[in-house]
Amino acid sequence: MLKKFNKHIKNEKGLTLIELLAVIVILAIVAAIAVPAIGNIITNAKVNALKADGQNVLAAASLYFVDGGASPVTDVQLITAGFLDDAGGFATTAGGLGASVTKVPNGSNTISGTSANSTNTVQFISATNATISATKNVSTGTVKITTP
């Protein structure tokens, strides 16, 4: 009996339909888990880029103020004065509404404005570097960053 069974197993080649279906189901489950996770990574990267644009404008404005520039200053003025190369998401061509930085005596300058890209918008309302870094991203809608 065992010899017949071993002989039968040696003659089998390939996979059965059930085995193929099991593999397909497993791959579908893995894909269903991976696709949303990848989508959130892309959204977070885009929002983080807009937040970085705000921090770049704040850094350029700090240099502008140290050089004796008047407060408040806009992103366009910073570009014209040579303190900023690109407004990033604040540029009206990118969908942004510009930025304005106000000098604060303790050094925590604040930025107000709207930065946007193709799918995301970040609104800065008297935000500092600390509040920009501390604000968590959301997957949909506008991220509002404000200093309490």
From TrEMBL:
Indicate whether Secreted appears among the record's keywords. Answer: no
Q: Which organism is this entry from? A: Sporosarcina siberiensis
The entry's keywords: Competence, Membrane, Transmembrane, Transmembrane helix
Localization, UniProt:
Cell surface
> Which segments cross the bilayer?
20-42
**Per the annotation, which location comes first and is thus the protein's main one?**
other
Q: Does the keyword Signal apply?
A: no
* Coiled-coil blocks: none
For this protein, the record's InterPro entries field holds: N_methyl_site, Pilin-like
Protein name as catalogued: Prepilin-type N-terminal cleavage/methylation domain-containing protein
Lineage top rank: taxon:
Bacteria
